[in-house]
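Input C-alpha cells:
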C-alpha cells in the first residue's frame, strides 16, 4: 500500500494568522466530481476554510472551495463551497472538542492532499494571533533577512 503524498492545496496564511499547536489528519467525505476536480488540481482554495464541531459530535469543514469538474454537466456536478464532513475516530473527536472548549482554540486547515488514493486534510489547533504579535513576527523576520544579507555581503567581499 503506497503512502505517497500528493499535495493539492496549502494554507500559507495559517502560520501568519494563528499560533499553531498540535496537527492532526482527517479524511473527507467527498462526491465523485469533487475527487475528480481535486485530481485536476485546479481552483482549490483552503485559505478561507475552517472546521467546526457540531453538538452531535461531528466535525465539518466549511468554506473549502473545490472548483467544478471540467467534464461534468450542470446536473451531475457539485456545489463548490458546500460543507464537507471530516472523518475522525470518536476518541479523537472527544479529545479535540475538550481542547477547543477549554483552551478556546480554533481548528485551522493546513493542507489537502492525496495519500494513496484517499483525500486527506491536515489541520491544527491554534490560537488567533493578535495584531501586535503579527507585527512582532514581521519585524523579527525583517531583522533576520537583513542580517543574512549583511553576512552574505561580508563573505562576498573578503
Amino acid at each position: 500500500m503506497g503512502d505517497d503524498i500528493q499535495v493539492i492545496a496549502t494554507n500559507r496564511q495559517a502560520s501568519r494568522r494563528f499560533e499553531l499547536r498540535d496537527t492532526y489528519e482527517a479524511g473527507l467525505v467527498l462526491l465523485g466530481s469533487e475527487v475528480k476536480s481535486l485530481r485536476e488540481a485546479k481552483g482549490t482554495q483552503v485559505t478561507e476554510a475552517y472546521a467546526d464541531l457540531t453538538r452531535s459530535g461531528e466535525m465539518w469543514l466549511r468554506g473549502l472551495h473545490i472548483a467544478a469538474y471540467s467534464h461534468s454537466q450542470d446536473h451531475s456536478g457539485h456545489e463548490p463551497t458546500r460543507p464537507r464532513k471530516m472523518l475522525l475516530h470518536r476518541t479523537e473527536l472527544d479529545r479535540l472538542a475538550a481542547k477547543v472548549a477549554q483552551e478556546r482554540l480554533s481548528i485551522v486547515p493546513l493542507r489537502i492532499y492525496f495519500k494513496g488514493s484517499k483525500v486527506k486534510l491536515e489541520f491544527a489547533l491554534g490560537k488567533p494571533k493578535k495584531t501586535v504579535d503579527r507585527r512582532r513576527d514581521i519585524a523579527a523576520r525583517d531583522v533576520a533577512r537583513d542580517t543574512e544579507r549583511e553576512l552574505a555581503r561580508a563573505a562576498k567581499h573578503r
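The mean pLDDT is 85. DSSP finds four helices and nine strands in the chain.
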